[in-house]
TrEMBL record, chains A, B:
InterPro entries: 2H_phosphoesterase_YjcG-like, Cyclic_Pdiesterase, YjcG. The active site is at H34 (proton donor), H115 (proton acceptor). This is Putative phosphoesterase ACFSBH_14670. It comes from the Bacteria. Keywords: Hydrolase. NCBIfam families: PRK13679.1 (NF010223). Its EC number is 3.1.-.-. Belongs to the 2H phosphoesterase superfamily. YjcG family. Gene3D superfamilies: Cyclic phosphodiesterase. It is an enzyme of class 3 (hydrolase). It comes from Oceanobacillus luteolus. A motif (HXTX 1) lies at residues 34-37.
Length: 170, 170
């Protein structure tokens, strides 16, 4: 079973993202708008409760921190994914690091670029058009990260939340 | 903001449901397969943390209980929704009751029929065809309910999980 860890930003940010995702992100139906903190990983049979305990421990020692979106960006030329760029604060970098060290294997293939995907798998014309439009709009948002969620993937690719880890709780 | 409370059954059940939902449920992209425990309700400004505390209290005093799906059924002639019928155990009835009494306003418009929707808004031909097909298949599943989730609705209708309440914790 594939698991993933994500943060769902405020409704305002999700609504703004969905207005683009609906048409331009093939993953639209698979998961609400999110910031991936740990991409698809597997948990060995019988080890789920151990992982949950470790995530609880990490959430307990994390304090809520601000999340700022200041602009739209893209992964061009690597991919033509367009996204809300999340400012890489010390707190989010530290959190992502904890989810890839200690008891967690470091399976990262790319440096961590926190973001909310708006569009992907675009034609060149779509890419230029959407990025042009987004750059004329104002996309600045502030939010407070106070939790993350462990999700698992269904056979159709859709993600279901298994558990929610609120910061600073036991 | 609209909130709802749902239980997401085992991956096996969700996968079985999605094989029908993908084609026959217009809500497919809005939420993974689920059992609704409390349908869309609002929470007054500033009252979310109170509701979360109450849901924690209810989860704390609830013990994990079995969930059994024994057959496929439909709401005909009221609607042509087709669903996995969840056996209405004492435990699930009691849980649903708690989510509509005490601090929660009782906004129920129908008796509680626990189910996982497979198809809805069908033409008459689709309805007959799908129900016939499902009735020739074996749809018996067992699962253990050990949590429920509070979700909120985005402007596009999609649901995001706000928090997970695991039974019998702290």
């Amino acid at each position: 079973m594939n698991f993933g860890i994500a943060y769902f930003p405020s409704k305002e940010i999700q609504d703004a993202a969905n207005s683009y995702r609906k048409r331009y992100d093939p993953h639209y139906a698979l998961i609400p708008p999110h910031v991936t903190l740990k991409s698809s990983f597997t948990i060995a049979e019988g080890k789920l409760s151990e992982v949950v305990s470790e995530l609880k421990r990490i959430a307990n020692e994390t304090k809520p921190f601000p999340l700022r979106i200041t602009k739209v960006s893209s992964f061009e030329p690597v991919t033509n994914t367009i996204y809300f760029k999340v400012e890489p604060s010390d707190e989010i970098i530290e959190l992502e690091e904890k989810l890839h060290s200690g008891k967690f294997e470091d399976t990262r293939k790319h440096p961590f670029v926190p973001h909310v995907t708006l569009a992907q798998d675009l034609t060149h014309v779509e890419f230029t058009d959407i990025l042009g439009r987004l750059n004329m709009e104002n996309h600045q948002y502030e939010d407070t990260v106070d939790r993350f969620q462990l999700l698992y993937q269904l056979e159709n690719g859709q993600w279901t939340v298994h558990d929610t880890f609120v910061f600073g709780k036991e």
